[in-house]
Amino acid sequence: MRVPIEVEDEKNEAVEPETETAEAEGATVADEAAGAEEPEMDEEAEERARVEAAIRAGEEAAERELAADAGKIREERDELQKKLSDVEDQIEAAKKEAADATERMLRLQADWENYRRRTAAERIAEKERAAESLVTNLLPVIDDIERAIEHAGATDENEQLKQFVEGVSAVHTKMLAVLAKEGVEPIDPAGEPFEPLSHQAVGRVEDKEAYDETVAQVYQKGYKMGDKVIRTAMVTVTYGGPKRPAKQEGDVEKSEE
Q: Which residues lie across from 186 on neighbouring strands?
Protein backbone atom coordinates (compact mmCIF):
# COMPACT_ATOMS: atom_id res chain seq x y z
CA MET A 1 0.00 0.00 0.00
CA ARG A 2 2.92 2.30 0.40
CA VAL A 3 3.80 2.19 -3.24
CA PRO A 4 0.83 4.17 -4.49
CA ILE A 5 1.32 6.85 -1.90
CA GLU A 6 4.87 7.41 -2.92
CA VAL A 7 3.82 7.40 -6.49
CA GLU A 8 1.39 10.16 -5.76
CA ASP A 9 4.04 12.02 -3.90
CA GLU A 10 6.36 11.66 -6.80
CA LYS A 11 3.67 12.74 -9.14
CA ASN A 12 2.96 15.70 -6.94
CA GLU A 13 6.60 16.48 -6.76
CA ALA A 14 6.90 16.04 -10.47
CA VAL A 15 3.99 18.34 -11.08
CA GLU A 16 5.21 21.12 -8.83
CA PRO A 17 8.16 22.17 -11.06
CA GLU A 18 5.86 22.65 -14.02
CA THR A 19 3.61 25.01 -12.03
CA GLU A 20 6.53 27.12 -10.98
CA THR A 21 7.81 27.34 -14.54
CA ALA A 22 4.40 28.50 -15.75
CA GLU A 23 4.29 31.19 -13.12
CA ALA A 24 7.78 32.32 -14.03
CA GLU A 25 6.85 32.51 -17.67
CA GLY A 26 3.76 34.57 -16.81
CA ALA A 27 5.86 37.01 -14.81
CA THR A 28 8.32 37.35 -17.64
CA VAL A 29 5.55 38.14 -20.11
CA ALA A 30 4.12 40.76 -17.74
CA ASP A 31 7.53 42.30 -17.30
CA GLU A 32 8.03 42.43 -21.03
CA ALA A 33 4.64 44.08 -21.48
CA ALA A 34 5.43 46.64 -18.80
CA GLY A 35 8.83 47.25 -20.36
CA ALA A 36 7.21 47.86 -23.72
CA GLU A 37 4.79 50.47 -22.27
CA GLU A 38 7.53 52.42 -20.43
CA PRO A 39 9.59 53.30 -23.57
CA GLU A 40 6.45 54.60 -25.28
CA MET A 41 5.71 56.91 -22.31
CA ASP A 42 9.31 58.15 -22.23
CA GLU A 43 9.20 59.06 -25.93
CA GLU A 44 6.00 61.14 -25.47
CA ALA A 45 7.53 62.97 -22.48
CA GLU A 46 10.70 63.62 -24.40
CA GLU A 47 8.65 64.90 -27.37
CA ARG A 48 6.67 67.22 -25.08
CA ALA A 49 9.91 68.38 -23.46
CA ARG A 50 11.42 69.05 -26.87
CA VAL A 51 8.30 70.97 -27.93
CA GLU A 52 8.29 73.00 -24.72
CA ALA A 53 12.01 73.68 -25.07
CA ALA A 54 11.48 74.79 -28.66
CA ILE A 55 8.62 77.04 -27.57
CA ARG A 56 10.75 78.54 -24.80
CA ALA A 57 13.64 79.01 -27.21
CA GLY A 58 11.29 80.70 -29.70
CA GLU A 59 9.87 82.94 -27.02
CA GLU A 60 13.35 83.85 -25.79
CA ALA A 61 14.50 84.55 -29.35
CA ALA A 62 11.40 86.65 -29.93
CA GLU A 63 12.03 88.54 -26.72
CA ARG A 64 15.64 89.14 -27.73
CA GLU A 65 14.55 90.34 -31.16
CA LEU A 66 11.92 92.59 -29.63
CA ALA A 67 14.49 93.95 -27.17
CA ALA A 68 16.95 94.53 -30.01
CA ASP A 69 14.26 96.23 -32.12
CA ALA A 70 13.18 98.34 -29.14
CA GLY A 71 16.81 99.35 -28.57
CA LYS A 72 17.20 100.33 -32.23
CA ILE A 73 13.94 102.27 -32.10
CA ARG A 74 15.09 104.08 -28.96
CA GLU A 75 18.40 104.89 -30.61
CA GLU A 76 16.62 106.17 -33.73
CA ARG A 77 14.22 108.15 -31.54
CA ASP A 78 17.11 109.69 -29.58
CA GLU A 79 18.94 110.50 -32.81
CA LEU A 80 15.83 112.07 -34.33
CA GLN A 81 15.23 113.99 -31.10
CA LYS A 82 18.81 115.26 -31.21
CA LYS A 83 18.42 116.25 -34.87
CA LEU A 84 15.13 117.96 -34.03
CA SER A 85 16.80 119.86 -31.18
CA ASP A 86 19.63 120.88 -33.51
CA VAL A 87 17.11 122.02 -36.12
CA GLU A 88 15.17 123.99 -33.50
CA ASP A 89 18.42 125.65 -32.36
CA GLN A 90 19.24 126.48 -35.97
CA ILE A 91 15.74 127.89 -36.47
CA GLU A 92 16.06 130.04 -33.35
CA ALA A 93 19.49 131.21 -34.47
CA ALA A 94 18.13 132.01 -37.93
CA LYS A 95 15.20 133.92 -36.40
CA LYS A 96 17.60 135.90 -34.23
CA GLU A 97 19.84 136.67 -37.20
CA ALA A 98 16.78 137.73 -39.23
CA ALA A 99 15.59 139.98 -36.39
CA ASP A 100 19.06 141.50 -36.04
CA ALA A 101 19.27 142.04 -39.80
CA THR A 102 15.81 143.65 -39.82
CA GLU A 103 16.79 145.91 -36.93
CA ARG A 104 20.02 146.91 -38.67
CA MET A 105 18.13 147.56 -41.90
CA LEU A 106 15.56 149.73 -40.12
CA ARG A 107 18.34 151.60 -38.32
CA LEU A 108 20.23 152.14 -41.57
CA GLN A 109 17.03 153.25 -43.28
CA ALA A 110 16.33 155.72 -40.47
CA ASP A 111 19.92 156.98 -40.64
CA TRP A 112 19.60 157.36 -44.40
CA GLU A 113 16.33 159.27 -44.06
CA ASN A 114 17.88 161.54 -41.45
CA TYR A 115 20.95 162.06 -43.63
CA ARG A 116 18.78 162.78 -46.67
CA ARG A 117 16.64 165.29 -44.78
CA ARG A 118 19.71 166.87 -43.17
CA THR A 119 21.57 167.20 -46.46
CA ALA A 120 18.44 168.57 -48.16
CA ALA A 121 18.01 171.10 -45.36
CA GLU A 122 21.70 171.97 -45.57
CA ARG A 123 21.47 172.50 -49.32
CA ILE A 124 18.42 174.71 -48.90
CA ALA A 125 20.13 176.64 -46.09
CA GLU A 126 23.28 176.99 -48.20
CA LYS A 127 21.23 178.22 -51.12
CA GLU A 128 19.43 180.68 -48.87
CA ARG A 129 22.73 181.86 -47.38
CA ALA A 130 24.17 182.37 -50.87
CA ALA A 131 21.07 184.25 -51.98
CA GLU A 132 21.04 186.23 -48.74
CA SER A 133 24.70 187.16 -49.21
CA LEU A 134 24.01 188.30 -52.77
CA VAL A 135 20.97 190.33 -51.71
CA THR A 136 22.85 191.85 -48.79
CA ASN A 137 25.60 192.97 -51.18
CA LEU A 138 23.02 194.47 -53.56
CA LEU A 139 21.17 196.44 -50.88
CA PRO A 140 23.71 199.30 -50.73
CA VAL A 141 23.44 199.61 -54.52
CA ILE A 142 19.65 199.81 -54.23
CA ASP A 143 20.04 202.44 -51.49
CA ASP A 144 22.32 204.52 -53.75
CA ILE A 145 19.87 204.24 -56.63
CA GLU A 146 17.01 205.37 -54.41
CA ARG A 147 19.02 208.32 -53.12
CA ALA A 148 19.99 209.29 -56.67
CA ILE A 149 16.37 209.11 -57.80
CA GLU A 150 15.25 211.13 -54.81
CA HIS A 151 17.93 213.76 -55.34
CA ALA A 152 17.41 214.01 -59.10
CA GLY A 153 13.63 214.14 -58.71
CA ALA A 154 13.97 217.45 -56.89
CA THR A 155 15.26 219.13 -60.10
CA ASP A 156 12.68 219.44 -62.85
CA GLU A 157 14.57 221.98 -64.96
CA ASN A 158 16.53 219.56 -67.19
CA GLU A 159 14.29 217.40 -69.39
CA GLN A 160 17.08 214.99 -70.27
CA LEU A 161 17.91 214.52 -66.61
CA LYS A 162 14.27 213.83 -65.94
CA GLN A 163 14.18 211.11 -68.60
CA PHE A 164 17.36 209.63 -67.16
CA VAL A 165 15.81 209.52 -63.71
CA GLU A 166 12.75 207.80 -65.11
CA GLY A 167 14.98 205.17 -66.72
CA VAL A 168 16.85 204.63 -63.47
CA SER A 169 13.54 204.33 -61.64
CA ALA A 170 12.46 201.65 -64.09
CA VAL A 171 15.69 199.73 -63.46
CA HIS A 172 15.13 200.10 -59.71
CA THR A 173 11.61 198.71 -60.07
CA LYS A 174 12.88 195.73 -62.06
CA MET A 175 15.54 195.01 -59.44
CA LEU A 176 12.93 195.02 -56.68
CA ALA A 177 10.73 192.72 -58.80
CA VAL A 178 13.62 190.25 -59.23
CA LEU A 179 14.31 190.33 -55.49
CA ALA A 180 10.61 189.84 -54.76
CA LYS A 181 10.72 186.57 -56.75
CA GLU A 182 13.41 185.37 -54.33
CA GLY A 183 11.21 186.28 -51.36
CA VAL A 184 12.89 189.60 -50.60
CA GLU A 185 10.56 192.33 -49.34
CA PRO A 186 11.41 195.89 -48.21
CA ILE A 187 10.61 197.06 -44.68
CA ASP A 188 9.29 200.62 -44.85
CA PRO A 189 7.48 201.10 -41.51
CA ALA A 190 6.68 204.83 -41.61
CA GLY A 191 3.65 205.48 -39.36
CA GLU A 192 3.65 201.91 -37.97
CA PRO A 193 4.32 200.79 -34.39
CA PHE A 194 7.99 200.41 -33.53
CA GLU A 195 9.17 196.76 -33.67
CA PRO A 196 12.56 196.19 -32.02
CA LEU A 197 13.15 192.97 -33.96
CA SER A 198 12.85 194.58 -37.41
CA HIS A 199 13.49 198.27 -36.67
CA GLN A 200 16.61 200.03 -35.46
CA ALA A 201 15.90 203.31 -33.65
CA VAL A 202 18.53 205.94 -34.44
CA GLY A 203 16.67 208.87 -32.92
CA ARG A 204 13.59 210.04 -31.02
CA VAL A 205 11.11 212.75 -32.03
CA GLU A 206 8.59 214.33 -29.66
CA ASP A 207 5.08 214.21 -31.11
CA LYS A 208 2.11 214.54 -28.77
CA GLU A 209 -0.42 213.91 -31.51
CA ALA A 210 0.99 210.54 -32.61
CA TYR A 211 0.91 207.42 -30.53
CA ASP A 212 3.95 206.83 -28.39
CA GLU A 213 6.68 204.68 -30.01
CA THR A 214 5.50 205.18 -33.56
CA VAL A 215 7.94 205.25 -36.49
CA ALA A 216 8.18 208.88 -37.51
CA GLN A 217 10.73 208.72 -40.28
CA VAL A 218 12.66 205.98 -42.14
CA TYR A 219 16.29 206.85 -42.78
CA GLN A 220 17.05 203.52 -44.42
CA LYS A 221 14.69 200.78 -45.49
CA GLY A 222 15.03 197.37 -44.03
CA TYR A 223 14.64 194.07 -45.90
CA LYS A 224 13.48 190.59 -45.02
CA MET A 225 13.92 187.38 -46.95
CA GLY A 226 11.09 185.06 -46.26
CA ASP A 227 10.53 185.24 -42.51
CA LYS A 228 14.11 186.31 -41.77
CA VAL A 229 15.06 189.96 -41.38
CA ILE A 230 18.33 190.38 -43.27
CA ARG A 231 18.58 194.10 -42.53
CA THR A 232 16.69 196.18 -39.99
CA ALA A 233 15.18 199.52 -40.94
CA MET A 234 16.85 202.62 -39.50
CA VAL A 235 14.06 204.81 -38.07
CA THR A 236 13.22 207.59 -35.66
CA VAL A 237 10.58 206.94 -33.00
CA THR A 238 8.02 209.33 -31.48
CA TYR A 239 7.50 209.92 -27.80
CA GLY A 240 5.30 212.11 -25.59
CA GLY A 241 2.02 211.04 -27.24
CA PRO A 242 -0.80 208.86 -25.94
CA LYS A 243 -0.23 205.18 -25.41
CA ARG A 244 -1.29 202.93 -28.25
CA PRO A 245 -4.44 200.95 -27.31
CA ALA A 246 -3.99 197.23 -26.89
CA LYS A 247 -5.26 195.12 -29.76
CA GLN A 248 -8.46 193.22 -29.09
CA GLU A 249 -8.97 189.64 -30.25
CA GLY A 250 -11.51 190.78 -32.83
CA ASP A 251 -9.09 193.39 -34.17
CA VAL A 252 -6.44 190.70 -34.62
CA GLU A 253 -8.87 188.53 -36.58
CA LYS A 254 -9.88 191.48 -38.78
CA SER A 255 -6.26 192.37 -39.43
CA GLU A 256 -5.52 188.74 -40.37
CA GLU A 257 -8.47 188.73 -42.79
A: 223
User: 191 and 217 in contact (C-beta within 8 Å)?
Assistant: no
Calculate the CA dihedral of residues 106, 111, 113, 119 and round it to 10 degrees. Answer: -170
* 204-247 confidence digits (pLDDT tens): 988 888 888 899 999 899 999 888 899 999 999 998 888 888 76
For residue 205, what are the β-bridge partners? 238
Q: Is residue 28 part of a domain?
A: no
Note whether 224 and 185 are within 8 A (CB).
yes
Can you give the residue range of the structural domain that contains 231?
184-244
Tell me if 206 sits within 8 A of 171, measured CB to CB.
Answer: no
pTM for the predicted model, two decimal places: 0.51
Domain of 216: which CATH number?
2.30.22.10
Q: Is 236 contained in some domain?
A: yes
Structurally, how many domains does the chain consist of? 1
CB atoms within 10 A of CB 222: 22
